[in-house]
TrEMBL record:
Domain spans labelled Polysaccharide export protein N-terminal: 48-123
Protein's name in the database: Polysaccharide export protein
Lineage: Bacteria, Pseudomonadati, Pseudomonadota, Alphaproteobacteria, Acetobacterales
Stored PROSITE patterns: PROKAR_LIPOPROTEIN (PS51257)
UniProt KW keywords: Signal
Residues in the signal sequence: 1-39
Residue span, Soluble ligand binding domain: 129-177
Lineage: superkingdom: Bacteria
Keyword Protein transport belongs to the record: no
Length: 203
């Protein structure tokens, strides 16, 4: 009589085992889904240290030495310019404080107000950062040098229970003047005007 081959495969699962395996697979699927929101965004590019550049909403102090009429506190307008008395609009968007001061000096010379003006410019208040999505109190918060994603979220009450907490979406105006959205980690450094979007988990 011919011997039957012996199969040494994996034994079939019991009904209880099948239910457990199905539950584990479902849990993994849900876990993968909750972390995939926004994961396809391009990662935040590495930043190189550099001087701060002015933008709409920054509050600055302009000091024109030897002329108190032109010295005062001003806000960078929506068009990226400072409206200065006797001078008019001076574009400062994207310039450093040093470059903006030289720009004002040039405007003073071109209007024959000074032969050799001397101007200093300092930032009083930075334009805010905006934090939206799954946080306790979404909205704008004042920017502070060295602010990270996590510290910005903390200022609006922290993550809520539905939040993806390992990364966020971060929208920033690039040098081309266009808004670009990235995936950023909790320790990513922010810039004034950034918009942080905290994603919602899918379960």
């Amino acid at each position: 009589m011919q011997a039957r081959p012996i199969h040494r495969g994996i034994p079939p699962l019991s009904p209880l085992g099948r239910r457990a395996a199905l539950g584990a697979a479902l849990s993994l699927a849900l876990l993968g889904g909750c972390t995939s929101v926004g994961a396809d965004l391009p990662p935040m590019p590495e930043e190189t240290a550099g001087p701060y550049r002015l933008g709409a909403g920054d509050q600055v102090r302009v000091t024109v030495f030897n002329d108190p009429r032109l010295t005062g506190d001003f806000r960078v307008g929506d068009t990226g310019s400072l409206a200065l008395p006797l001078v008019g609009l001076v574009p400062v968007q994207g310039r450093t404080t040093e470059q903006a001061a030289r720009q004002i000096e040039e405007a003073l010379r071109s209007r024959d107000l000074f032969n050799d003006p001397s101007v200093a410019l300092e930032i009083l208040t930075y334009r805010p950062v905006f934090v939206l999505g799954m946080v306790e109190r979404g909205g704008q918060t004042p920017y502070q040098p060295g602010m990270t994603v996590l510290s910005a979220v903390a200022t609006v009450g922290g993550f809520n229970y539905r939040a993806v907490t390992s990364y966020v979406g971060l929208t920033r105006i690039g040098e081309d003047g266009q808004a670009h959205e990235y995936r950023a980690g909790r320790s990513a450094l922010l810039q004034p005007g950034d918009v942080v979007n905290v994603f919602e988990r899918r379960f």
